From TrEMBL:
Taxonomy, superkingdom: Bacteria
PROSITE patterns the UniProt entry points to: HTH_LYSR
PANTHER family (UniProt xref): HTH-TYPE TRANSCRIPTIONAL ACTIVATOR BAUR, HTH-TYPE TRANSCRIPTIONAL REGULATOR
Keywords, ordered alphabetically: DNA-binding, Transcription, Transcription regulation
GO MF entries: DNA-binding transcription factor activity; transcription cis-regulatory region binding
Pfam families tied to this protein: HTH_1 (PF00126), LysR_substrate (PF03466)
Every HTH lysR-type domain range: 1-58
InterPro entries given in the database record: LysR_HTH_N, LysR_subst-bd, WH-like_DNA-bd_sf, WH_DNA-bd_sf
Thylakoid is among the record's keywords: no
Protein family per UniProt: Belongs to the LysR transcriptional regulatory family.
Name of the protein in its database record: HTH lysR-type domain-containing protein
Source organism (scientific name): Phenylobacterium kunshanense
């Protein structure tokens, strides 16, 4: 069934027959009759009772017509929204971010969006890593920034890789963990850990845990990296996260990287659905996102 079929069925119900519906649709009556007949054959259902030039919908036809009106209204609204979004006028885009992607690339992207689409309405939703994917899959947002491993189970999403980093462990100066060299999970998990969630790569590295190790791995869990950093700065908790999160504190000597065998990459992706990817605005947002992290990295290297 195609959208044109929905339009045809709805117009036949409104007009009470094929002739009036054909005039409204600006097609010939035989063309309309053949289109509906082919659809009925395809569905093995009778949609209309024909009699003396009139057409009365069957229970199936009534059901389709009721659904068709709502669907066609949605298509019309979506078309208007996409046209507005493409111009950056009075449109709205909803973005989900995780604890790390809220810090990069979201702030730089928002600066670029404000310059290029000054009238665009933007909503951001901060979620846990898995929650970002759920929000996108459920249609609560138009696009999302997330960690590659959280997106792995959603094979039908459009993915645009933005940057890659490495998950590291950090602690405040003088922490006993800093005396370790190439610490494995057994050594590192003697200490309390602060992190937003246990990503699959970290879980694989940790392996089977004792009760004490499991408790230490989840000693402080927060979706706010500001709180995670604060925990590492003020206590003997070791923080885990992408290295860019701790870069400023590492450079200032407020935190120090712990030597571990942890080798888990952090890949940040922009993700959206195939339907939303058709929007010129979403494609523009992908370009702005890539430019934001690429140019910023180039400036840092210089």
């Amino acid at each position: 069934m195609e959208l044109r079929h929905l339009e045809q069925i709805l117009e036949i119900c409104r007009a009470g027959g094929f002739s009036g519906a054909a005039r409204k649709l600006q097609i010939s009556q035989p063309t309309l009759s053949k289109s509906i007949a082919r659809l009925e054959d395809q569905l093995s259902l009778k949609l209309f009772e024909r009699s003396n030039g009139a057409a009365r919908p069957t229970a199936y036809g009534t059901f389709v017509a009721q659904r068709a009106e709502t669907l066609l209204q949605g298509v019309a609204a979506l078309t208007r929204d996409l046209e507005q979004l493409a111009r950056g006028e009075e449109g709205r885009v909803r973005i989900a971010v995780g604890p790390a992607s809220r810090l990069k690339p979201l702030p730089e992207l928002m600066r670029r969006v404000a310059a290029r689409f000054p009238r665009l309405h933007v909503e951001t939703l901060q979620e846990t890593g898995p929650g970002v994917m759920t929000a996108l899959q459920e249609g609560r947002v138009d696009m999302a920034f997330g960690y590659a491993e959280h997106a792995a189970r959603y094979g039908d999403l459009i993915r645009k890789k933005l940057f890659e980093d490495q998950i590291i462990a950090v602690a405040r100066p003088g922490h006993p963990a800093l005396e370790l060299r190439d610490a494995g999970p057994r050594e590192l998990l003697q200490h309390a850990i602060a992190l937003p969630n246990v990503v699959p790569g970290v879980a694989r590295w940790a392996g089977d845990l004792t009760r004490e190790e499991a408790d230490n791995l989840r000693a402080f869990v927060s979706d706010d990296y500001g709180l995670i950093v604060q925990r590492a700065l003020e206590t003997d908790t070791v923080a885990l996260g992408a290295s860019f999160i701790f870069a400023e504190h590492l450079a200032a000597g407020r935190l120090v990287q712990v030597s571990t065998t942890l080798d888990v990459p952090y890949d940040c992706w922009m993700l959206t659905t195939a339907e939303r990817w058709r929007s010129p605005l979403i494609k523009a947002m992908a370009e702005l996102s890539k430019a934001a992290v690429t140019e910023r990295a180039a400036c840092a290297a210089a």
